Backbone:
């Protein structure tokens, strides 16, 4: 059905709804640590080589939506070619159909006219609103909005307009806000009452990874979820290279009740404890750099060890692994629960004088490291009991030896 609509103008709707339903992506660091809602906005800033495009393509593959609009705005043409060749071969885990059937691609590569970058962004959001009005959940992925901002700066300079910060036009913040505000979960116009949503995920490419530049700062004021990519993590081959200290989500309270009803009541508790351990690790690392890890007491060595498990065995995820590229939400919950229970079991055993080095080498430790590749959820659930059984067995052995 053909409709003509000015792309700079948002399509009408009856009512905007509160964001309550999370946009599930199958990525543990996104779904569990920094969730995004259907109808929300997110930004993925990062310097060269931090994995912005791979993260966007991963979200396009596994996001829990019926339609995906992928905008290649000013980026390399090879990246669009990768999507064209890869998506027909991949299957949507929810429907069983090829992913390309739900994907709309708007190609505006770096060798195309600068003025067309703005056209690609507005065309993409208008197409997304068109499908939203049909009652679909739509994810719009823009890679990257920084190239759009550079186009605005170039066109503004040729029009001899008054430049703003770093040469960008004074209306840069207004244009970005107008774009991101077209996201939302709404009751659609029409004779039938339908609910649809548009979720916007924009990649930002700050020069040199400098997050203080105007496009990143102006987007930060608008986006509800901030997934900060870290070059140091990328250099260590930790992907997705999302910095868990700098990133945040403003939707945690909105989706808390949904997770409690659909996943588990203690989901928020385990997520909070994992974040506390990761933050505590950062504080301890400063001490470790001064005096070394051996000078720390055992209770702080445990924090470093569990934080390492959370980083390497939970947050780290391979986009190219058949077993680990997509992780269901229930599996995410049990993986995190096993890790936190392992932490509790170690602390409980240490209070009864069990040596730390023995607790860190129980057979369950190697099973925890292999959880991400484990397809059988029942084995992960059994592992939570195995952790307590093995620590208690070790405790009995130590007590009998001491006696």
Residues:
């Amino acid at each position: 059905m053909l409709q003509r609509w000015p792309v700079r103008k948002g399509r009408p709707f009856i009512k905007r709804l509160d964001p309550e339903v999370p946009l599930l992506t199958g990525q543990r660091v996104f779904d569990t640590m920094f969730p995004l809602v259907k109808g929300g906005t997110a930004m993925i800033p990062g310097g060269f080589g931090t994995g912005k495009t791979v993260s966007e393509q991963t979200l396009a593959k596994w996001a829990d939506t019926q339609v995906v609009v992928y905008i290649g705005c000013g980026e390399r043409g090879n990246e669009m070619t990768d999507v064209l060749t890869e998506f027909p071969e991949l299957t949507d885990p929810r429907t069983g159909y090829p992913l390309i059937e739900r994907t709309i691609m708007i190609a505006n590569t770096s060798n195309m006219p600068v003025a067309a970058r703005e056209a690609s962004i507005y065309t993409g959001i208008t197409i997304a609103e068109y499908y939203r009005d049909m009652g679909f959940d739509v994810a719009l992925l823009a890679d990257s909005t920084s190239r759009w901002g550079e186009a605005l700066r170039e066109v503004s300079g040729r029009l001899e307009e008054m430049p703003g910060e770093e040469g960008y036009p004074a209306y840069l913040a207004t244009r970005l806000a107008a774009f991101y505000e077209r996201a939302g979960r709404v009751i659609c116009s029409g004779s039938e009452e339908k609910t649809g949503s548009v979720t916007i995920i924009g990649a930002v490419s700050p020069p040199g990874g400098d997050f203080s530049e105007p496009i990143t700062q102006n987007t930060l004021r608008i986006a509800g979820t901030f997934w900060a990519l870290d070059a140091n993590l990328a250099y260590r081959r930790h992907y997705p290279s999302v910095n868990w200290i700098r990133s945040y989500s403003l939707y945690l309270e909105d989706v808390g009740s949904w997770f409690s009803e659909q996943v588990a009541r203690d989901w928020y508790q385990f997520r909070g404890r994992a974040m506390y351990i990761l933050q505590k690790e950062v504080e301890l690392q400063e001490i470790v750099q001064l005096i070394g890890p051996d000078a720390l007491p055992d209770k702080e060595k445990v924090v470093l060890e569990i934080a390492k498990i959370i980083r390497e065995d939970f947050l780290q995820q391979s986009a190219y692994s058949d077993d680990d590229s997509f992780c269901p939400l229930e599996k995410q919950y049990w993986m995190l629960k096993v890790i936190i229970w392992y932490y509790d079991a170690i602390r409980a055993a240490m209070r009864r004088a069990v040596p730390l080095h023995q607790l860190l080498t129980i057979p369950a430790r190697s099973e925890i490291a292999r959880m991400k590749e484990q397809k059988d959820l029942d084995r992960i659930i059994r592992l939570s009991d195995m952790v307590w059984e093995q620590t208690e067995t070790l405790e009995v052995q130590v007590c009998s030896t001491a006696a």
Remarks:
- The two ends are 82 Å apart (CA to CA).
- Residues 377-402 form the longest helix (26 residues).
